Every structure is written in C-alpha cells, then in structure tokens.
Amino acid sequence: MKTAKAIDCDILYFLIRALCVRLYIILTSKGLIFLIMFSNYPDIVSVPQVCQMLGIGRNSAYDLLHADQIQHVRVGKKYIIPKQAVIGFLNQSCYNGDQIKRGGLTLVKEGEYVQ
Questions:
Q1: CA distance 28 to 24
Q2: d(CA 43, CA 114)
Q3: Pair 90, 75: CB distance under 8 Å
Q4: Each residue of 38-83: pLDDT tens digit?
Q5: Which candidate, 20, 39, 26, places its Cα nearest to that of 87?
Q6: pLDDT at 108
Q7: Within 13 A of 20's CA, how many CA atoms are on the CB side?
Q8: What number of other Cβ atoms are within 10 A of residue 20's Cβ?
C-alpha cells in the first residue's frame, strides 16, 4: 500500500503532466510552439546550430545571414546569433507565407521550383 506521501507525489506528477500537455496545446494553437521547440539550445547559437535548428545546409544558413533574414552580430569572422532571432525568423516566415529562394529558383510546392 502506498503512503500518503507517495500518493501526493503521484497526484503532483499527474497534475504537472496535464499542465505540460495543456501548455503544449495552447502554444501550438497560438503558433508559439517555437518558444519550447528550441529549449535545448543556448541563448546564443552558432551557424552549425542554426543549420540543425532549421534543417538546412551551411550555405543556406549563410545566405539567410547575408540577406539579413536572421538578425545577427558579426565580430570578426564569427557570427553571434540570438536564438530568439531564429525563432523570430520562423514566426515571420510562417505568418507572412514567405517563399524560400535559393539560387535564382523559388520553392513553390514541395519538390517544385520555378525561375
């Protein structure tokens, strides 16, 4: 038989889990899932980390930085990129319905490119 303390811990665990699920649903419905999506990354990220976060290659990441699509500070040869800037880029791109341009081609639908 469980003690009162063990039962309290079970109830607390259940409540925390329910709260986390509810928070996830709210953030997803409001388009704010990015706030928790990158929680395992530091506040300042490197170019390789941006590539991991966005699932893009190094050249595409540098293209976004050179086009000032992602806010950053450059110190010498090093890029200092706030994680919040990557999240802001995703929010802006998602809400504006921006198309991704690469090498003179524009991605229209998955796998379809136009000049």
A1: 6
A2: 37
A3: no
A4: 888 999 999 999 999 998 999 999 999 999 899 999 999 899 999 9
A5: 39
A6: 45
A7: 7
A8: 11
Pairing of strands 78-82, 44-45: antiparallel
The pTM for the full model equals 0.57
CA dihedral 47, 27, 111, 108 (to 10 degrees): -100
Dist CA 17 CA 44 (whole Å): 29
| Residue 87 or 20, more confident | 87
Please name which of 89, 78, 80 lies closest in space to residue 37, comparing C-alpha atoms. Answer: 89
> SS3 sequence, the chain?
CCCHHHHHHHHHHHHHHHHHHHHHHHHHHCCCCHHHHCCCCCCEECHHHHHHHHCCCHHHHHHHHHCCCCCCEEECCEEEEEHHHHHHHHHHHHHHCCCCEECCEEEEECCEEEC
Structure tokens at 41: 């990354």
Map tokens 């395992």 to a residue: 40
